[in-house]
Amino acid sequence: MLTYDRGPPRRPLLSPRWFTDPTAHAVEQDALARHLPWRYAGLVGDGIDGDDIAACGDFLFRRQMPDAPSLADWLGPFTGDLLARSPALDSPVARDAVEFAANWKILVENTLDDFHGASVHPQTIHPAVDADWRQHLTTQRAGPHSRSSWKLADDTAAWWGKLLARGALRRFADQDRYEHVFIFPDLYVASFYGTMVIVHRVVPLAVDRSRLEWRTFLPGAASGDAKAASFRRGLVAMLSASARQVIEEDRPLCEQVQVARAAATGPGILGWREQRIGDVHAALAQLLETE
Ligand SMILES: [Fe+2]
After folding, report:
1. Are strands 177-183 and 138-142 parallel, antiparallel or unpaired?
2. Ligand 1 is a single-atom ion; what residues have CB below 5 A from it?
């Protein structure tokens, strides 16, 4: 639980040109390809291999620098998060993508903001978490990576509990929480009630255009009977439609921020609950310094 006895640190934020200028975008993408030790490459089963690929569970990363630290050192405390979620990845049920007319960092900022549910998804995600979400929210940060964990509302947890039984779902953890694990710069893994896992990747297409790709995993018990399998199919259709609806709520907001960013008169100020965003800016600023 945060206390507000002291103000948040002033974080240096990247200037707007890194969001709007095609030349700056090319410099940034080159820096991410040459000076970032490890970059998410895909999942086991995607046909990705090579001497420069290492695995953390079923998550594959490409080594981009010869003197990179070990993958476990790069991922730090979130190594355990990826390992824990990996067993769920044997159960892919859907994949989807949406293009945004916005810089990729705006999609990242949007998803890392702890006020995100309350402000961007007031009718969809926000009611699914505990009304007293500030009290129960825990955030862990390590370098550019981070995790926020929200307690689900009691009725949402009860709903998942019923789905678990009827769909014979497996859980990677016994938790009544929504968790969001971010691995810099472009991977985030959302999980619900310790069962459903959605792996997201933010793909830059141009300075002002990005594609958000996501893959949904709903682990079912190996011995699930035909009734449970049929229930799961209906559930997957419903959950896939909801996932897309939620992303379609993000898109117009990110696109407005893209337009407004160019008109900003100065850097923003991040509150205590927005420090995950500051971590990303700090990591990028450090990479870009070498250019
Ligand atoms: Fe969102």
Report:
1. unpaired
2. 250
